[in-house]
Amino acid sequence: MSSSGENESMLDNNALVAAATPVFFALIALELWVARRRRVPAYALADSLASIGCGVWTVTVEVFTKAAAVLLFAFIEQRYALLHFDAGNWLTWVMFFVLLDFLYYWAHRWSHEINFLWGVHSPHHQSEEYNLSTALRQGAFQDTVHMPIFLPLALLGCPVEVFITVLTFSKFYQFWIHTRMIAKVPLIEGILNTPSAHRAHHAVNDIYLDRNYGATLMIWDRLFGTWVDETEPCVYGVRKPFHSWNPVWAQFSWFADVWRDAGRARRPVDRLAIWWRRTGWRPADVVQSDPQAPFVLADVKHFSATRGRKWAVAAVALFVLAAILNNILLTQVSTLSLTLKIALAAGVTLTLVAMAAALQPRAKQGKQAQPVPAAISTSRRET
């Protein structure tokens, strides 16, 4: 079994994330080049800044939250594991890769089916584009909230270094599948997760809704009846559109909506139940007092409003500053005092909010939302 000091170093994957970031940006640049060569409008500046901004804020928050959650995993594994496995044995890695992928399927599925869990996952689906920058659009609290679902692995005796490495691999694997530039991949469709399978997952078309939850393996979707093949043009986003470029507010907007509905419910039981009922459920009296129009795909309008080119330049500059502050935090996290960590995190947060303000148009200003052709892009489960 690893020592405590060794475990803590294995748990700290911030340096790995920081090292992978240039690779992510290089692949985004490659996808953008390919899209332009094919004359496919795959990227919009404001959307990409907001999506990557979500990723920046997520890893900033996780400096304070994720490490503690994974340390809990390590504590349970060391003190209460029913079995013990050797991290030097390749069979250990294969077994726990499969088990983690199985639990990830259920964590992901429940995050689409339960109001509270949708709140931590919905930021990933808010973009009305679908490209590699969307992969970086993560929920800042998702992994922390999901940790209880993975704790059975600790009880089974999964070495903590195996857990954090396999979980990180799963995240990195899912980066490449967020693209429209790759068609169906022969031989592995329906077995491994692919761009085609994940496009269907992100789509709001009725035939695609709540499908293809697998992280790496798609066998779980086939076993539990949630597999679907990509057969028609996909529509991306969420059914209650998030028309904002603010990557910080993106993390709280769904919770704010549920909180507002809970506060208006007459029955105390509904005020509690709404958090754990199926995503989109609202108390009957709230529906009656504040009805919402049903989602109609043909009525979808693509949000692209900004404040103009000069403000976009300012937004890019602010994003770069946020990225620099975030990089300092990630690469120096083990040597910084708590005060400096909080100061850097606050700097990242305020800079991202300022970036969003530079992009977000004032009322009745900027480009208007554009109709989406036939089946292109909007929003999910928030009905």
From TrEMBL:
GO terms for molecular function: glyceryl-ether monooxygenase activity; iron ion binding. The keyword Protein biosynthesis does not apply. It is a multi-pass membrane protein. The chain crosses the membrane at residues 15-35, 55-76, 88-107, 149-170, 311-330, 342-359. It is found in: Endomembrane system. Its main location: membrane. This is Fatty acid hydroxylase domain-containing protein. The lineage of its organism: Bacteria, Pseudomonadati, Pseudomonadota, Betaproteobacteria, Burkholderiales.
